[in-house]
Specification:
Elements (H helix, E strand, L loop, with lengths): L1 H25 L4 H16 L2 H15 L4 H19 L6 E6 L4 E5 L4 E6 L7 H12 L2 E6 L4 H17 L7 E3 L5 H10 L2 E5 L2 H8 L5 E4 L4 E5 L5 H13 L9 E7 L3 H10 L2 E3 L2 H11 L18 H8 L9 E5 L17 E7 L2 H14 L5 E5 L3 H10 L4 E4 L3 H4 L15
Parallel strand pairs: 3-4, 3-6, 4-5, 6-7, 8-9, 8-13, 9-12, 10-11, 11-12, 13-14
Antiparallel strand pairs: 1-2
Helix pairs in contact: 1-7, 2-4, 2-5, 2-6, 3-4, 3-6, 4-5, 5-6, 9-10, 11-12
Length: 423
C-alpha cells in the first residue's frame, strides 16, 4: 500500500513539474500573447463545426449522458461566450490604478491549477477552463471522471496542438491518463489551486486537501411560477431548460413552486408540451428507481442520470407515452424528508403548490438547505415586487427571471449572466 502511495505521489509530481515548467514560460507572456492564445482555442477548435460534432458524439458514446445536439450547442455557444466575456479583460501586469489611494492592482498567475472534470461536461469543461487559464498565464492539470477520461484527453490533446501551433508550451494543459481517486487526491495536494466540479464527496475532498479551492456544489434549481406568469411561455421555457442535454447540467429545473390559483392551469400547459404527471403509485416506483437505497443513503442511481425518459420509465416499471419529455410528481414535503426535494439530475420535476409568496420562499429555502444552497433559483412573473422578494429572500447567488433556467444560468446571449462551465 505504501509503495502504491509513493508511486502515485511520484507520478503526479512528474506531471506537476512539467506543467510548472510550462507555466513559468507563460508567466512571461504579454497581454497580446495570452489574448491570442485564448482566441486561438476558440477559433481553432470551437469554430470548427465538424470537430465540435465529433467531440459531442465522442463524449456521448463514452459517457452515455445527455444527447449529441445539446453537447454541440454547449461547446459552440458557451466557449464563444466565455471568450466574449474575457477577451478585453486585462490579466497581465498593472490592471488598475487607484491614484486617490496610492494603489495599483497587478495581475499575477496562480501557477498550476488542478481541475476536476465531471463526466457530464467532459467535452466542454476543459475548453472553458483552458480559456480562463491561458488568459491568466496559468497551467492546468485535468483530473477527469473515469467515465469521461477519453473525451477529456481528446479535448486536451486538441488544446495542446493549438498551443504548439501558436508557439506556447504544450504542457500548459495536461490530463491524467488513468485517473483514480488516489491520483485526483494527490493532484489536489500538489497543485496551487483546485477547481472542483463534481459530486459532493469530491468537492469536500478539495476543501480538505490543504490547497486553496473553488468548489461547485449541488445545483437543485427551483422555479417559482406566480399568478401573473405567462403560463404557456413558462411551460415552453421549462421544457427547453429541463430537456437540454437530458438534464445533465446543474442548472436545470428540479422543482416547480406554483401559485395555487394557477396550479391546475399550469399543469395543463406542462402536459401540452409533453410532461406526464405520475400518480402516487408511479411516484413510489420512480423514487425506488432513482434512489434505490433511500433512506439508508441518498445516492442517485447512475443509470437514471441524464437519461431519456424511455429508459427512466423502463427502470422504474412505468408505462408512459413514447413522446413524454418530462416526468412530474406532486410533492408537499420539503428538505431531507423526501428525496424529490433535492437535485435529481434527470428528466424528473417535483411540483409544489403555494398560497402566498412567503410560503414559496420557505419551500425554496428548506429544499436548498437539503441540497443546492447558494446556487440558483428562477421565477416566472410579471410582478417586479415578487421578483425582487424572491431574489432577496432566497439563499441563492443567481435568480433567473422569465427565461429558461439551464440555458441562462451559466451564461447566454440573451442575458447578462457571465458564461461559465462551473457554478
Amino acid at each position: 500500500m505504501q509503495d502504491l502511495a509513493n508511486n502515485t505521489e511520484q507520478s503526479i509530481a512528474v506531471l506537476i513539474e512539467k506543467a510548472r515548467a510550462a507555466q513559468q514560460i507563460a508567466a512571461g507572456f504579454s497581454q497580446e500573447k495570452v489574448d491570442e492564445l485564448a482566441a486561438a482555442i476558440v477559433w481553432e477548435i470551437v469554430a470548427n463545426e465538424a470537430l465540435v460534432q465529433e467531440l459531442a458524439e465522442f463524449s456521448y458514446h463514452e459517457c452515455r449522458l445527455g444527447d449529441v445536439p445539446s453537447k454541440v450547442v454547449k461547446v459552440r455557444e458557451k466557449c464563444r461566450g466565455v471568450l466574449y466575456d474575457v477577451k478585453h479583460e486585462k490579466t497581465v501586469g498593472v490592471v488598475e490604478e487607484l491614484p486617490e489611494k496610492g494603489l495599483v492592482r497587478i495581475a499575477k498567475p496562480v501557477g498550476v491549477i488542478g481541475s476536476l472534470v465531471p463526466s457530464t461536461q467532459a467535452e466542454m469543461h476543459p475548453l472553458i477552463q483552458a480559456i480562463f487559464a491561458v488568459k491568466a498565464r496559468d497551467a492546468v492539470v485535468f483530473a477527469p471522471h473515469p467515465r469521461g477520461k477519453k473525451t477529456t484527453q481528446k479535448v486536451v490533446d486538441l488544446i495542446r496542438e493549438v498551443m504548439k501551433k501558436y508557439d506556447a508550451p504544450e504542457d500548459l494543459f495536461i490530463s491524467l491518463p488513468n485517473p483514480s481517486v488516489e491520483e485526483t487526491n494527490e493532484l489536489m495536494k500538489q497543485c496551487d489551486l483546485v477547481i472542483a466540479t463534481g459530486g459532493q464527496p469530491m468537492v469536500r475532498a478539495a476543501y480538505s486537501s490543504g490547497t486553496p479551492a473553488f468548489g461547485v456544489g449541488a445545483g437543485n434549481a427551483i422555479i417559482v411560477i406566480d399568478e401573473t406568469a405567462d403560463l404557456q411561455d413558462a411551460a415552453a421555457k421549462i421544457k427547453i431548460s429541463k430537456t437540454f442535454d437530458l438534464a445533465a447540467g446543474c442548472s436545470c429545473d428540479n422543482s416547480l413552486v406554483i401559485a395555487g390559483s394557477v396550479y391546475e392551469a399550469f399543469l395543463a400547459e406542462l402536459e401540452k408540451v409533453g410532461a406526464v404527471l405520475l400518480d402516487s403509485a408511479g411516484k413510489e416506483k420512480l423514487q425506488r428507481a432513482i434512489w434505490p437505497n433511500w433512506p439508508t443513503d441518498h445516492v442517485i442511481n447512475r443509470d437514471i442520470v441524464a437519461s431519456p425518459v424511455s429508459n427512466i420509465a423502463r427502470l422504474a416499471g412505468l408505462d408512459v407515452p413514447a413522446e413524454t419529455c418530462m416526468l412530474l410528481v406532486e410533492e408537499s414535503e420539503t428538505g431531507a424528508t423526501t428525496p424529490f426535494s433535492g437535485e435529481k439530475m434527470s428528466l424528473v420535476i417535483a411540483l409544489y403548490r403555494y398560497d402566498n409568496l412567503d410560503e414559496a420562499i420557505r419551500i425554496i429555502n428548506e429544499n436548498h438547505a437539503y441540497g443546492g444552497a447558494g446556487h440558483s433559483c428562477g421565477i416566472y412573473s410579471k410582478n417586479p415586487a415578487a421578483i425582487e422578494k424572491v431574489s432577496l429572500q432566497t439563499f441563492t447567488t443567481r435568480v433567473v427571471v422569465n427565461q429558461p433556467q439551464a440555458a441562462t444560468n451559466t451564461g447566454s446571449w440573451t442575458s447578462g449572466m457571465p458564461f461559465t462551465s462551473s457554478l
